[in-house]
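Lab meeting minutes (informal)
Scribe: AK
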Amino acid sequence: MKEVILITGANGNLAKQATKALEDNFQIKLLSRKPKLSNEYLWDIDKQYIDPNSLNDVNHIIHLSGASISAKRWTAKRKQEIFSSRVNSAKLLLKQLSVRGQKISTFISASAVGYYGNSLTDSVFDEDSPPGNDFLSNVCLEWEQTALSFESLGFADKSSVLRFGIILDKTSGALKSMLFPIKLGIGSP
């Protein structure tokens, strides 16, 4: 029997690519705000709800949920959405594992290079570099602390955090948006 992976952020490009890469060797379940497929389950972070069936038999969780930081203006409301979609969603997963008394093998969480802050510097950052001191770095710091607490609180044998930069894919996301002005001859190389 295949091990079960629960992936959050089902509609995101990274989740779709991870699903394709893993589905031959694992059973994949997805958390979505608008489930459509038989392996997609409803969750609502604001209402603190996760379909309990989504966690049945789960061995691993890959947490890729997060509202786009470039899709809308950063109003106070949007900043709360960015924070909640990352941090509060991870806390909800942790809470549900706790309520169920369920332990998983692995919790893998996305994070971002925004952890290092948004300032001009000649520094080269690595895993031991301190966080910045702006909105995104604070979001990343809390996001990562929550992710690592799955292991420290005993709900996962191992927790890992992956700091991504801008994900470029020719069919979606940032690159698709950047290609349009370039094709018109007004973009930068």
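Next up, CB showed the second protein from the same session:
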Amino acid sequence: MKRKHIAVFTYMADGHVNSYLDVCSELVGRGNRVTFPTSAKFANRIREAGVEAVELKTKNWCFPKKLLTYESSDDTSYWRQFGSVSCPSIVVNALSTVGELEEFYATDPPDVILYDWFNIAGRIFAKDLGRPGILMCSHFAHPRSIVRLGGDCTFPQPVLEFSPVLDNLMSEFGIEGEGQMWHAEPMNIFLIPGEFQYDVESFDSRFRFVGVTFSRRSDKRSLQDVSNHGKPILLISEGSTSRDDRFLNLCIDAFAESRYHVVFLKGVYNSEVRAPVLPNNFQVMMDVSNREILPLANVAVCQAGMGTTLECLYHGVPPVAVPLIPPNVDVAQRIDELGLGMHVPKRSMTPLVLRSAVDAASMTESLRTRVMRMQDNLRSNRGAELAANAIEEWL
């Protein structure tokens, strides 16, 4: 196929960028040119993947820090912040990106534009340049909704109230119609396995579920770095929502001097350790990725982000999901539905409940058999290749 120019628009966060990179590398390896607008934080990572980073000068507004310290037992407060603060920040980023790159893409138009929901600049450019757009997402496909809770697809009211705002904004760019928040393209690529997508049979041929696309490098730590003394290794990934050591202290209460050697990975926004003296079977690590420890782990506790969950399953490690924010609850519920791990709701999380869930995930043979079956599926489906095939097929 003739060399094509492919432009990529995604949200500037690790989970979004990382899920796109292997697809971009695959496209470049096939002789295509890929341009990737990015903040300075990710520019080098994108270039290392062989992709042309278009570094933005305008500040990229991230989710407000107060979303990362969400504490309320009432999820409404989270969605109120998401609808009134985070959704507008998505619009601000899109408009600034369009303004900065309008001339760049007008003189060097792409043949196709890949974008995710959190960067609607891709849709705007597709319309303005008369180019096809492909929605590419690393989460579930949600029909006319933003989340699935308790088995029901829903649009929390505070987010739904943002919908007409987005509709009116898009109409200014010639994109008409109601319900732009749940827009689907003629081609939509989801970077998760079809076996993990709920109600997958309800989606038509416009929706492709290609499997995982993160790098296959294991980055395996040596046993000298993880001094487990023959104990099974429990990986606990703090995630990006923690700002203090309450979760670490709860885990210490649950697993101090237990049968596990605990490797606790500090979250990106919580690098300091303010906990008391660590138990002998605890090891706290910083600046370490999940995939460095997962090849050594027997079981993992995580906050049920889609990327971390699929990394666990790719390495055959049962996840114990402790979602601390509502968007991760649908992943935790899917883990539970498929019998691939355990779901510990935030409201019922105590040291005893958490320890019992980890024991069940670690020692239940039927559960581990299902995890190994999913691992075989994830390793056999070459997600980046399948995504690239779908893109080239559409072109």
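CB comment: DSSP finds 14 helices and 15 strands in the chain.
No objections, moving on.
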